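Our consortium's second objective concerns turning raw sequence data into structural hypotheses that experimental partners can test. To show how far this objective has progressed, the report includes one record in full. It was chosen at random from the queue rather than selected for favorable results. The single chain below, 284 residues long, was entered without modification.
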Amino acid sequence: MLNFLNQPYKEHSSKKENLLIAILFGLFIFLFLFLFKPFGLSQLKTSTLLFITLGYGLVTFFVIFIFTFLLEPLIVTDKWTVGKNILWEIFMVTCIGVANFFYSLLAFDKDFSIQNIPAYTKLLLYSIWVTLLVGIIPSTIHYLISINRKYKKVLKEVAIPKEDIVSWEDEVVIKAGNPKNSYPINPKNILYISSNDNYITVVTIKGDVVNKTHIRGTLKAVESDLKKNSQFLRCHKCFIVNLKYVDRAAGNIQNMKLILSKSDVEIPVSRTCVPFVLKKIQRS
């Protein structure tokens, strides 16, 4: 239990979200009291009930607003824990109860006097208790939503990024930007693709046989043809390489080459592409 209370706690809500939470809490208190009329509120006229319950909602909103925007930035630190947050929430609810107590005195036109301190003490404790009971509902809803958001955030952080998922099409049709071209090929058989002026060369392998096919077009258009296959990488202005066949990188940042496992050709890497290429090679 102590380990749980000592766990780090950090809320990731934005200022806009915190403001919305304060508004929703206040709105909930107003609607709950107005619609269900608990604690003797059913004896009030509708117009009076509307005014009184709206006041309780506003009291809740302002106390939460003060705690969230004025006090928390001064109190909450990087060493904030689950236990500290629970105590902070209890303290905030207690303050809402105290504020409701003074609002009740004002709303129901009760004069404060020293002689009535015992009675007012009971009323104060009752106000805090009622605030706690009613506040459990929106607090529980907020807690569940917060846990759900954190759970989704964790799933997102541990999930494999889309760019790391290896995807292949059974067949691609390389047109290279030229509508007259139609070169169907299994993308897994492509070693690399190079460009020379207005022509591209598609180098494929099947078994141990390497073939070259020359097509009129641009390398940029070929990138579009291959976009659904994650293992192709534009590593140079004149080369697209299939990471499936990259054995290793050789050289340095000034003169890096990709060594293919099925070919004696060394694919050059542009200096500006080196960090990205190394990152992709490590992931593949």
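The partners drew two points from this record. The longest strand covers residues 199-206. Residues 117-158 form the longest helix (42 residues). Both points have been shared with the crystallography group to help prioritize constructs.
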